[in-house]
Design goal:
Elements (H helix, E strand, L loop, with lengths): L1 H17 L3 H36 L7 H25 L6
Amino acid sequence: MQAKEFSCGIFGSMVSFFGLTLEEADHVISVVCGLIGVLITIITTIIIPLWKKWNEARKDGKIDPDEVEDMMNTLKDGMDKLKDHDDHHEGGKDE
């Protein structure tokens, strides 16, 4: 039980040291969660689809111009989805 009290004391001291109030801590958590959300969105809309296309294209040992164009279209589609997602959350588009 003393280890738990000790770790809580250290955490409390760190919060005091950095001068974070509950409201400021809430803002920090909000920013961190927002960044995690952005990373997940980028990974699912751009990186994974592009990686799948790249793996498909290199199965035969070379990447043809048509496959490059397909990958560029995948990238463009992902960027468009991100832009639409961003516009929606900033009030740029109505549902």
